[in-house]
Specification:
By secondary structure, the protein is an alpha/beta fold. It has 10 helices and 7 strands. It has a 7-stranded mixed beta sheet with strand order 2-1-3-4-6-5-7, with helices on both faces. Helix 2 (66-69) links the parallel strand 1 and strand 2 (73-76). It is globular, with a radius of gyration of 19 Å.
């Protein structure tokens, strides 16, 4: 656990820079993840959050370095387990704003099962996934969202496998808020993250975050994205039909449901441990 939380100005005077740590990012020049740090800081400032009341949790990968770059509490966990750690933290400390960050490899491959059940449980936290459709930190292997015909030295002629569909999986698994942003639109992304944090329940934000090192062709994403193409709805079938027309570059809030978030059952404060132990006696 990162115990270094920056001392900041009073809430009314805090700006985005007050939510960033003194640690400088080590990403490749041009990496989209820089935009996520900036957007997240802007969203926190807009919400006037106190850094000591925020915890950013991550797993493994380029994008999972983000907790070190924020001036809040942070936890850098093991590969694919960020949502498990974030869920446990939020249930134990419901007073905290819990934000989980990661990438398409960490979140949809080894962490895919946790993704399904985090959506299903609907714990009140926000999950931001930076999707560049490649394993950047481990030198360019195909990820679950890589196109089947993407040809590279590590996957000659492509994998031939259908891409994982994160937004569709999130919708069918029960996520309460689903949106997509783009790092090339930092203000739009900041607004989406702000809305995700405000929304009660599990909020999932897919972020198109180009990897210019291993996938330089992704620089063209700025020509392909369609801002505000999604219009938020609380109607699940309508959102599902809208996804059928999605080409992967539509931006905005797809779904904002009203399912009540998970609430831990039973009293916590002052619980006699012996009473709890007795419930497990066989």
């Amino acid at each position: 656990m990162n115990e270094t939380v920056a001392a900041t100005a009073p809430a009314a005077a805090r700006g985005p820079s007050d939510y960033k740590s003194d640690v400088k990012p080590v990403w490749c020049p041009g990496c989209g993840d820089f935009g996520v740090v900036n957007a997240l800081a802007k969203a926190m400032a807009k919400l006037a959050l106190d850094p000591k009341d925020v915890a950013v949790v991550s797993g493994i990968g380029c994008s999972s370095r983000i907790p070190a770059y924020m001036a809040s509490y942070g936890f850098h966990g093991v590969h694919g387990r960020a949502l498990a750690a974030g869920t446990g933290l939020k249930v134990a400390r419901p007073d905290l704003t819990v934000i989980v960050t990661g990438g398409d490899g960490d979140g949809y491959s080894i962490g895919g099962n946790h993704f399904l059940h985090a959506c299903r449980r609907n714990v009140d936290m926000t999950y931001i996934v930076m999707d560049n459709r490649v394993y950047g930190m481990t030198k360019g292997q195909p990820s679950p969202t890589t196109e089947p015909d993407w040809d590279s030295k590590l996957s000659p002629e492509g994998t031939g496998l259908r891409e994982f569909q994160p937004m569709a999986i999130a919708l069918t698994s029960g996520a309460s808020f689903i949106a997509r942003g783009f790092t090339g639109d930092p203000n739009g992304l900041a607004e989406i993250i702000e809305r995700a944090i405000r929304h009660p329940g599990f909020s999932f934000v897919e972020v198109l975050s180009p990897c210019v090192t291993f996938r330089p062709e992704q620089k063209d994403w700025k020509k392909l994205v369609k801002p505000d193409a999604f219009r938020p709805t609380a109607d699940l079938p309508r959102a599902a039909r809208r996804l059928l027309r999605d080409g992967g570059f539509d931006l905005g809030v797809l779904f904002a449901g009203n399912r009540p978030p998970h609430a831990p059952r039973g009293p916590r404060a002052g619980l006699d441990v012996s009473v709890l132990e007795a419930r497990f006696v066989l």
